[in-house]
Specification:
The chain is mainly α. Helix content is 73%, strand content 0%. It is globular, with a radius of gyration of 18 Å.
Length: 153
């Protein structure tokens, strides 16, 4: 198995594990686990980068929501290079809408939050954009010989 193919397989497995863990958190009956994670994220970002004015737990939650969708969309763009990045962005936005609707109408101790949806979608768009940049950079490094597929397989 060539290194790029192995990397795609390992990346796919890690992505599946990430999405499974995220699904458990998103659909957990109470939001206390996510709230605790957001507070930890806020504390760690303050510790590492300082505390800019106006940066509190609510802003850290928005940043965390963007990162939650940025990572998988970027990974999907890089693993499944034949699918257009906008498809992953659209699917991430639809998934975020589904998560928020489920939290708002199905889970009794959760609430629908438009800010979460917007942050998730912004993160997905950023992930798709970075994916396009990386893919363009990688494309410029692919050998011009059509018989030599070692750089892409």
């Amino acid at each position: 198995m060539t290194p790029p193919r192995l990397a795609r397989r390992v990346g796919s497995l890690l992505l599946c594990a990430y999405l499974a863990g995220a699904a458990v958190l998103f659909f957990w009956p109470s939001g206390s686990r996510i709230h605790r994670m957001n507070l930890d994220f806020w504390w760690q970002t303050r510790r590492l980068f300082g505390a800019p004015p106006g940066y509190g737990p609510d802003q850290a939650e928005i940043l965390a929501n963007a990162i939650v969708m940025f990572l998988p969309v970027l990974a999907l763009c890089l693993i499944f290079v034949r699918v257009k990045p906008w498809v992953w962005v659209l699917l991430a936005a639809l998934a975020s809408a589904g998560i928020e609707v489920t939290q708002g109408f199905v889970l009794p101790h959760r609430k629908l939050d438009l800010t979460d949806f917007l942050a998730n979608t912004a993160g997905a768009m950023l992930g798709g954009f970075v994916g396009v940049i990386i893919l363009r950079f990688m494309g410029s490094r692919v050998p011009s010989d059509p018989e030599d597929r070692s750089a892409v397989d």
